[in-house]
Amino acid sequence: MTILQWTWILTGLSFALYIYIAYATRAKSTGDFYAAEQSVPPILNGMATGADWMSAASFISMAGLISFMGRDGSFYLMGWTGGYVLLAMLFGPYLRKYGKFTIPQFMGDRYYSNSVRVLSLCCAIFVSFTYVAGQMRGVGVVFSRFMGVSINVGVIIGMALVFFYATLGGMKGITYTQVAQYCVLIVAYLVPAIFISMQFTGNPIPQLGMGSRVSAEGAARLNDATAQGKYMLDVLNNIQKDLGLAAYTAGVRPRIDVFFITMSLMIGTAGLPHILIRFFTVPKMRDARSSAGYALFFIALLYTTAPAISVFARTNFVKSINNVKYEDAPSWFKNWEKTGLVKFVDKNGDGVMKIAKGKWDDPKSANEVKIDQDIMVLANPEIAKLPNWVVGLIGAGGLAAALSTAAGLLLVISAAISHDLMKGIVKPDMSESEELWWARGAAGVAVVIAGLFGIYPPGFVAQVVAFAFGLAAASFFPCILMGIFNKKANKEGALAGMFVGIVFVAAYISYFKFVNPAFNNKDHWWFGISPEGIGTVGAALNFIVMYVVGKFTPEPPQEIQDLVGSLRYPGKLVVPPSAGH
Amino acid sequence: MSIHATKELQAYWKENLVIIIGHLAVWFFVSFFCGIMVVDQLDAYMIGGFPVGFWFANQGSLVTFVILIWTYVYMMNNLDKKYDVHEG
């Protein structure tokens, strides 16, 4: 069978599975809709969190990004996993003990203030929409590249599917669909990596393969007999050197920037509402801890494989293209040229493809080959000449990653509208069934808006992803942390801290991304910290302001301090009535 | 005083904080220290085909993170039993 047929079959089967699961687990109450009735076993919650977390960008783009950045790319790997350690110890169990449904609700209750609640729900909606725009685009892109339909048709198919299971199933439907999506995406990611690691090093574990010696078969595939017996990373470093690039295992970014970006991604992760709400869905406090453990295990499976894919795919790509005559180019190169992801511009007119330092469209550079980062995952199985069914898996996996993340984000948006805004503030006396209709309606509207973002992608999407993490880091992370670990943290401090954190991060990022992009380089950054890493500074400012303002304003009421106390212990220690002191 | 402020429960919370701080120290050490701050110095050494700093940045810290969460789960489950606050 051809790659196209395999892609359609595997994607069709996976979609049928998602629809079946969504129908079988549809929500019947608001408890179902927001928190899956707090009945999800920790291991399944771990898988669902993994699928929720690993987005189109993680699946399609990350390995390619890292393959161009070498060791510097490690801030994605550490930054997007280290946050789970914080979640497991600082947030998850206590939020579960609190037990309600949304992050704005927790913020509003803990800081006894509707202003905090509204500010939080605006942040939650902004962060989630920023993130979801990229997912719907990702769905369209995968459809168009693997199945020959247009991007817009792809987005509409994705919208219809998410609309169906997010409005019908709510958190419950989404959770169980995400479990299936995790299985699809991890198989799709690991299978090609295992094949390639075997081909090059004879080691079936890609994580170890990237540090192993090249086998005889690998040397033959690379067309380089001298590579045999050398370490894979040394072979790649030599290739980089021959191309005039920095060694793959060396870093060029200033370490202070890597430090701040890593921290910003970690605490941003721990402040993302769609991840935090997953802890509401398990039965007990101790399940919240273990589900973070499962989640990180399932996530690390992909995140430790990604650098291996970077190494193998980059070596393979360069070896099969560089100094090869264009007319002899492998068939995959010509196929992917149609998508614009790779391109050959014969600058010196010799008909030979040359990879070098610099950009392909810069006439001063000797580089003649455009390589889009996404090609490293999308075309990797073809470059390695893997069987057609393996290539077909990539499409299903990419869709699973994009759809599962989109659904989790849409739920945050829907709950912010129906639960926090409508039920919490506008119309507190509405019935449960009315609230459920609001929740479904809001989810439906959010799907349509997300789809429109996918069809008409605003040019600034890539730029605002830094926003999502920076904002989550500078607003939610400090306030939730202090809300649990400091009984005396009060409303005034939280409001002032959030305000300063948000304004600072928004101003810094806007300046370098929109107002004065020409200045976006390390000579102009404060202390050498890029906009991607500024969330760390925003969070620090939030902490300081919250502490100082808290010192000069009244303490929280006793019942709030009791509520905080009760979050810290498992078991049936409910908040005592204030009169019972 | 609220009912939460009993000596037992305060001791439980203190032990929890100590466990958290210990774990976060390791978290910081493997990622920020080994993977970023002294990464070039560590790269002078090799484990198999990996420069050590590169390995910590790419894989070592991730593996440690997973282990850290599970030792935390294990220690907290024991602590819950010790103070008799474990859930059914």
Could you characterize what this model shows?
The complex is a heterodimer of chains A (581) and B (88). By secondary structure, chain A is an all-alpha fold. Helices cover 70% and strands 2% of the residues of chain A. Chain A is built from 24 helices and four strands. In chain A, the strands form two sheets. Chain A has a two-stranded antiparallel ribbon with strand order 1-3. In chain A, strands 2-4 form a two-stranded antiparallel ribbon. Chain A is globular, with a radius of gyration of 25 Å. Chain B is mainly alpha-helical and 88 residues long. Helices cover 75% and strands 5% of the residues of chain B. Chain B contains three helices and two strands, in the order H-H-E-E-H. A two-stranded antiparallel sheet of chain B has the order 1-2. The two termini of chain B are 27 Å apart.
Which features does this protein show?
A: 581 residues; mainly alpha; two-stranded antiparallel ribbon; two-stranded antiparallel sheet; 24 helices; 2% strand; disordered C terminus; B: 3 helices
Give the H and E element order of chain B. HHEEH
Rg of chain B, please? 18 Å
Largest interface: A-B, 56 and 49 residues
Query: Which strands sit side by side, in order, in the main sheet of chain A?
Result: 1-3
What oligomeric state best describes the polypeptide chains here? heterodimer
Low-pLDDT sequence parts of chain B: none
Query: For the report, how would you describe the main beta sheet of chain B?
Result: 2 strands, antiparallel
Report the structural category of chain A.
Answer: mainly alpha
Mean pLDDT of chain B: 88
Helical content class of chain B: over 70%
The rounded distance between the terminal residues' Cα atoms of chain B is 27 Å
Termini separation of chain A (Å)? Answer: 74 Å
Low-confidence stretches of chain A: 574-581
Helical amount among residues of chain A, as a percent range? 55-70%
The tally of helices of chain A reads 24
Tally of strands of chain A = 4
- Please count the helical segments of chain B: 3
Q: Largest sheet of chain B, order of strands side by side?
A: 1-2
Number of strands of chain B: 2
